[in-house]
Amino acid sequence: MAATTAQSKTPFSLAKWFKSRKGQQAIVIITFSIIPLALLFVFTYYPFAEMFKFSFYDRNYTKVRGFVGLKNYIDVFKRDDCFRALWLSLYYMGGAVVQLALALYLATIFCFGVKGGNFFKGCMFFPYLINGIAIGFIFKFFYTRGFVLDTVLQWIGFDLENLPYWLRDTRINNFSLVGTSVWKYFGQNMVLFVGAMMSVDSSLYEAAELDGANKWQQFKYIMLPSIKTIVMLNLIMSITGSLSAFEPPFVIMSGGGNGTATYFIKMHEIAHTSQKVGLASAMAIVLLLIIFAATILQKLFFKYVFKNAEDEDTGAAARRDKKLAKGKGAA
Amino acid sequence: MKFRKTLALGMAAVMTMSLTACGGSSDNSASSNNASTNNASTNNAPSDNASTNNAGADTTDAVTYASIKLGEDYTDLIASIKFMHHKTDREEDGTMARLVEEFNKVYPNIAVQTEGITDYAETALLRLPTGDWGDIMFIPAIDMVDLPDYFLPYGSVSEMSELINFADQWKFEDNCYGIGYMGNAQGLLYNKKVFADAGITELPKTPDDFIAALQQIKDNTDAIPLYTNYAAGWTMGGQWDAMLGAITTGDEEWLNRKFTHTAEPFKDNGDGTGAYALYKILYDAVANGLTEDDYTTTDWEGCKGMINRGEIGTMVLGSWAIAQMKEAGDNPDDIGYMPFPISINGKQYATAGPDYSFGINVKASDENKIAAMIFVKWMVEESGWCDLEGGYPISKTAPTSFVFDGVNIVENVSAIDDEADLMNRMNSESELNFNAGGDAKVMAIVEKAAAGVPFEDIMAEWTQKWNDAQSSLGVDVQY
């Protein structure tokens, strides 16, 4: 009834609009997107907003003890253990670079054709499918004194006496942990690279080969520029992952003992063992900002690097054109 | 038309409401005034000669734990009861079935059904309010005030404490509602054979003697003197912190009443007592190479077999671990348990408390209540289950192989009501987390001992954190 009175007053009718094509479109869009949006809001944005709110309070999980303003943030910067933990990320970043180089190298080899390539690809991708906790337990035994790694090294002539304690020695235990994360993720990176490389038109390689380009030149001038988006994506993901490394030290080193407590482990301990939820939330926000900053810096860096590469490329092309023109002229 | 419908609906609602209310009240009244009639009916139906036995039960309102004479009373009682517990391992290895079988030799007409539940703490809490979970369960974490709603009292605490240990663990208004199936004492697990081989004739009673004994084990045997179980995590904070309190100070009030108010709880007393001496034992053991080669890869499951085979000298674990170590190999008799090597004025102390406790369903039928009471009493007094688990004895009369010679068994008294959560807040604020998952700080002792950081530095750091927490929480320092 209300609708009919509204109709008599104004030319716009809600009921009519619903039946119109535009209205139907809107209804379809809303009904289809409302569930995913609601889920996204309920399980991502709302908890994040709550966490942001937590970071201004002194509280544990059940009790709020009062608003403290920026004190939690100041504490994050004043405590020496939070940012010292962040330095450990450098190990993982170094690992990420090695991991990407390895993945790129292997992907290139696979791309140029290898016998049984799919089998090897499968083998290398397999670790990515294993649960991180399981990998932790595998490597705990792998690194145990006199177990897998030591045995293998002894086969090839090392003496157990001269081998280090892979997890006990604080100078190398972080490298051991990074090793496990490289082992897990390089296969995944490699598969992404192979996928991207496959999409490059093979006639380009043939043409390059006819022009006398060797494999390295093909890689440098054709392959790499074509897959630079994927390289960048992988690198950004790996660096972000390095900043938030958690599973290897948590599982292998029993909760980050022996100087392997990363920023995430510290945060976990502060939130769950010491029940300082406000402080841990502030740490999470700070880490988020750090990850933002790192991502932006990387973007800028790559813009700079690839811009130069393109410049060089176009310059070379221009020179080549000139040369050809000259040659023609001379002829 | 519509009005009628709502009226009918409303009527129906009122009627069902009243019906349920009726049901509830009638149930209650029945259980209270049926106590005698029901007893009578059990007398008449299955047996005639039980009437003499029931005289005792009739004089008191309900049957009590103390009044039951095992093997004499109610031997003809016919009932079928159900027991819910968390010992799935005992369910699987047939121990529970064997115990029930032995029980049935004395009480052939009481059928006992047992159910082992894996995630017991949660499941028990979920099933508890439904009321029909069976007749006996291990009491989950509930408030003392709620005890009378769910469980049957065994008798008064004073009466019960003459028969069992820890009668006041589950008490409400001077009634005892729970009886532990075994007790846990805090001390040291050791391998008797390793100690004998090393030439240790007398169990060490002080930290210095203990370190010397470990050294002897290292020199004279191939065994690891002290296995830290570093990698398991909970074996560090959970087990070492448990010694704080009466064991390290001889003072039952220290842990929950004085610790938070102490200015320097980690200072060196100079006489091998206090928290300093406790953690110094771990530090010294690691610093002198008296622990395993590589602490980062210790293996909790593996350590059980190792100590059983005599490859480990000692481990710091609660007495609950004794049974597991004994069963892990062929030498169960080599496993021993000794009080923690700290002496206060020449006396050693040990703290003890009950594990899960038997509770009887208050909503069970009267025969089942009596049958359940008999079963619990039999389990505690006659079954030998507690001893089988290597537990600290619950029954004061049952035979036990648990030997703690010359030790004062004490309990750390709980905090005063106004400061019930002070310890938690101090733990949180200082991030040291004593007895609250603070494994990292004890693990750090091992790491720092291995790296050569002086012990005094660790204790100074803890004291600093403790004092900062005290000042930020406004705790007045009295000691």
Question: In summary, what is this structure?
Answer:
Chain A is mainly alpha-helical and 331 residues long. In chain A, 77% of the residues lie in helices and 2% in strands. Chain A is built from 16 helices and 2 strands.
SSE blueprint and pairings:
The complex is a heterodimer of chains A (331) and B (479).
Chain A: H1 2-9, H2 14-19, H3 21-54, E1 57-59, E2 64-67, H4 71-78, H5 80-87, H6 89-111, H7 117-129, H8 132-143, H9 148-155, H10 173-198, H11 202-210, H12 215-226, H13 228-243, H14 247-252, H15 263-273, H16 277-330
Antiparallel strand pairs in A: 1-2
Chain B: H1 2-44, H2 50-59, E1 79-85, H3 88-92, H4 95-106, E2 110-116, H5 120-127, E3 136-138, H6 147-150, E4 155-156, H7 157-160, E5 171-172, E6 175-176, E7 179-180, E8 183-185, E9 188-191, H8 192-197, H9 207-220, E10 224-226, H10 234-240, H11 246-249, H12 254-258, H13 274-287, H14 300-309, E11 312-315, H15 321-327, E12 335-338, E13 343-344, E14 347-354, E15 357-360, H16 366-381, H17 385-388, E16 407-410, H18 422-430, H19 439-451, H20 455-473
Helix pairs in contact in B: 1-2, 9-13, 10-19, 13-19, 14-15, 18-20
Written account of the structure:
The complex is a heterodimer of chains A (331) and B (479). With 331 residues, chain A is mainly α. Chain A has helices at 2-9, 14-19, 21-54, 71-78, 80-87, 89-111, 117-129, 132-143, 148-155, 173-198, 202-210, 215-226, 228-243, 247-252, 263-273, 277-330, and strands spanning 57-59, 64-67. Chain A has 2 domains: 13-44, no CATH class; 74-320, MetI-like (MetI-like fold, Orthogonal Bundle). Chain A has a two-stranded antiparallel ribbon with strand order 1-2. Chain A is globular. Chain A starts with a helix and ends with a helix. Chain B contains 20 helices and 16 strands. Chain B is an alpha/beta fold and 479 residues long. Chain B has helices at 2-44, 50-59, 88-92, 95-106, 120-127, 147-150, 157-160, 192-197, 207-220, 234-240, 246-249, 254-258, 274-287, 300-309, 321-327, 366-381, 385-388, 422-430, 439-451, 455-473, and strands at 79-85, 110-116, 136-138, 155-156, 171-172, 175-176, 179-180, 183-185, 188-191, 224-226, 312-315, 335-338, 343-344, 347-354, 357-360, 407-410. Chain B is globular. The chains are: A mainly alpha (331), B alpha/beta (479). The A-B interface holds A 60, 140, 143-145, 165, 167-168, 170, 173, 253-259, 261, 269-270, 272-276 and B 230-233, 293-297, 299, 424, 427-428, 431, 433, 436-440, 443-444, 447, 450-451.
